[in-house]
Every structure is written in structure tokens, then in C-alpha cells.
Amino acid sequence: MGKDDASILSGDDEFDALWTLLEICGFDTEEYEDLSEDDDYDGDYPELVPTRENLNAQLLDPYSELNILLSRCEIGYLDFLVLGVFILRTGAILPPELKEKILKTAAWETDEWRWKEEFKEERKKALQYFRSKIENHIDGKVSASENEFY
Question: Of the residues 6, 62, 89, 131, which has the maximum number of CB atoms within 10 A of its CB?
């Protein structure tokens, strides 16, 4: 399976991971789906990112659905990338053990197999940039703009 866009959150699999994590973090996906299916709606859509408060609650509560999935290793490769983007976009906390997992997931050696040859250099740069944002993230500070990883 090759990819044809080097951004962190490109592709259907990434969107599926994003959607699952949004639901875990309390995002009303039904409202978004209702709006997207309404041909007459021409307003703004809710931003596809959980709030800092919801994400922090999931990360701080050892019995939260997200932490249970993390502790059981029932969260996939792409989920870590999406979770990293959510943390950067909201300024949520980034526990050290989660930071290490995200950095490992965002390593080129982990990701290389997914990419067509003509996009490999662009993807390497995207991953390096993403990793630097994760490495330098400060809890409570938004570290990424709205469309930075799309």
C-alpha cells in the first residue's frame, strides 16, 4: 500500500484513527456527521480535535478508555500519530512514556514501508518536523496550528 501525500494525517486509515480517538475523548461525532450529510448546511463545521480539558482528563485518569487502550497496547501505530497531533493542537499534557511511544512511532524506520518512492523524502521531512514538535512540546502550550499536519 503506497501513500501519495506526505502529511501526518493524510489518508483514510489516518482519518479512521482520528475519528476513533475523537469519540474516546468525548467529541460529538454524530453532530459532525449530521452536518456533513445536510446538503443545505453552509455554516462552519466543528473543528475535528478534542478540547484540552477532555484530552487531559483522558490522559490523567488511569482508568479512562484511552489509558486502558494504551496500557493494553490496543492502540495502533496511526493512533499514536493522531494523538500526538491532538496534543500539539490543544496544548494537552504529554506524559514522558507517551512521548517516547509517539516518537518511536514517528520514526522513519517505522513508517517507510507505507510510502511511494516519490514521496519518501517529503515524508521524512514531515516526520522530522513532527518529532521536533513532540520533543519540544510544553504542557499547556498549543504547539501546532489548525491545519499544520493535514
Answer: 89
Q: What percent of the chain has pLDDT over 90?
A: 28
pTM of the model as a whole: 0.80
Amino acid at 35: L
25, 49 contact by CB (below 8 A): no
pLDDT in the model for residue 54: 85
Q: Among candidates 55, 54, 56, 36, which has minimal Cα distance to 45?
A: 36
Give the Cα separation of 60 and 119 in Å (integer): 37
Per-residue b or e along 13-33, where b marks 16 or more CB atoms closer than 10 Å to that residue's CB: ebeebbbbbbebbebeeeebe
